[in-house]
Structure formats: C-alpha cells, structure tokens
Design a protein that fits this description.
The complex is a heterodimer of chains A (114) and B (113). Chain A has 114 residues and is mostly beta strands. Helix content of chain A is 0%, strand content 50%. In chain A, the strands form three sheets. In chain A, strands 2, 5, 6, 10, 11 and 12 form a six-stranded mixed sheet that branches. A four-stranded antiparallel sheet of chain A has the order 3-9-8-7, with no helix packed on it. With 113 residues, chain B is mainly β. In chain B, 0% of the residues lie in helices and 50% in strands. Chain B contains no helices and eleven strands. Chain B has strands at residues 4-7, 10-13, 19-25, 31-38, 42-49, 56-57, 65-67, 73-78, 87-94, 103-104, 108-112. In chain B, strands 2, 4, 5, 6, 9, 10 and 11 form a seven-stranded mixed sheet that branches. Chain B starts with a strand and ends with a strand. The chains are: A mainly beta (114), B mainly beta (113). At the A-B interface, strand 5 and strand 6 of A face strand 4 and strand 5 of B.
Chain lengths: 114, 113
C-alpha cells in the first residue's frame, strides 16, 4: 500500500511570505497526486492534482506544486501567504494501477501571522 | 446540485448504541467512500464502494458496516458504538477511481460517551 508523509504538522508563516508544505510518497511507480485544503468545520476541497501531464501544476488561490520523481515529492507552494490561507492541508495519492483508494497524509496546519 | 450531503451533522451516542450515517450524492458518481478524521492521523478509509450493490473494506473497517443499495446513497452503520469511534466522519464520491479527484461532504461529528 501507498504511504504519504507530510513533514511538519504545523507550519507558521508571516503574511506575504512564501508558503512551502512538504509531501513525499512511497510508491516506486509514480501515482496520481492531489492536494486538498480543509477550512475549519468544513469538508475537503481540491487545490490541485498531478496526473502525469506536467510536472508543475497550478491550482486555485495561487497555489502550485511540483512533482519530482527523483525525490518522490510533491511539495505545495504559494509565493505570498494571505490570511485566508490559514487552514489544514492534506496531500493524497491514488495508485495508478488500481485507483480504487486514496491514501492521505496526516495533514499540515498552516497558520498565517499578520 | 447539492453535491455530497451528509446526515446528521452532529450526533452524541452512548456506548453500545447503534446509528446510521447517511451520505447522498447527486452527481451520478460510481465510487463512494467513508473516512474518519482524527487529530494527527489524517483521513483513514473505513469502507468504500465502486458501484451500486458493491462494498469493500478500507484501512479501518472494524466496528462499521456499510450498504450501497442505491447508487446515490452510501450508508455507514455502527452496530454498537464505542468511545474509540468518536471522530469526524467524511463521505466522498468520485466518478471513477485513480485520476479523478474525490468530492467531499461537510462531515458528521460523532461523540460516543
């Protein structure tokens, strides 16, 4: 089974600073990769996804992520943090061959300091 | 479209009681999923379904049962609730597996006393 590692359960950045949230996956076969955001007391919303078309993926709200096969990573970035970015972020993978299940990381809580 | 809806939003149970959580989707999706979310553990898959009449176990199925009698509904049952089942439960649906993302409901917060 896949495993997903999100380094840093809590990340704090100043408003306007770079946001970097880390995600590494375990599969030797590159999976499909997703980033979701969860605002307080809400369900998960898709930010962006990688499906092998391009290694740099742009998502909503100015976020982007780069797939690096050599590092088995899919880190999420945003050049300039906004107060409204404060939320929980989850990385998820889906196996290419079976695709029936998603495997989620444990999440990273992002705090934006004014 | 309402998307994915979950009923109820909140519930408090006593140990040993039973209940059913309802998930409904109006997007004609084939795949449906039940997750639980616990602090520091992310989302863990309980059961899932790849079509009407089918169900399969996920990562943490013990203590739960599911049914998918209609394509649009996916029910999660707790036969004898335990405090360890206190959690937030999310339902999700997807038109297919793999490349297509999952669409999530708003969640059900369950407390078992």
């Amino acid at each position: 089974a896949q495993s997903v590692t999100q380094l840093g359960s809590h990340v704090s950045v100043s408003e306007g600073a770079l946001v970097l949230l880390r995600c590494n996956y375990s599969s030797s076969v590159p999976p499909y990769l997703f980033w979701y955001v969860q605002y307080p007391n809400q369900g998960l919303q898709l930010l962006l996804k990688y499906t092998s078309a391009a290694t740099l993926v742009k998502g909503i709200n100015g976020f982007e992520a780069e797939f690096k096969k050599s590092e088995t990573s899919f880190h999420l970035t945003k050049p300039s943090a906004h107060m409204s970015d404060a939320a929980e972020y989850f990385c998820a993978v889906s196996e290419v061959l079976t695709g029936n299940q998603f495997y989620f990381g444990t999440g990273t809580s992002l705090t934006v300091i004014p | 479209n309402a998307g994915v809806t979950q009923t109820p939003k909140f519930r408090v149970l006593k140990t040993g009681q039973s209940m059913t959580l309802l998930c409904a989707q109006d997007m004609n999706h084939e795949y449906m999923y039940w997750y639980r979310q616990d602090p520091g553990m992310g989302l863990r898959l309980i059961h899932y379904s790849v079509g009407e009449g089918t169900t399969a176990k996920g990562e943490v199925p013990d203590g739960y049962n599911v049914s998918r009698l209609k394509k649009q509904n996916f029910l999660l049952g707790l036969e004898s609730a335990a405090p360890s089942q206190t959690s937030v439960y999310f339902c999700a649906s997807s038109p297919s597996g793999g490349i297509i993302e999952q669409f999530f409901g708003p969640g059900t917060r369950l407390t078992v006393l």
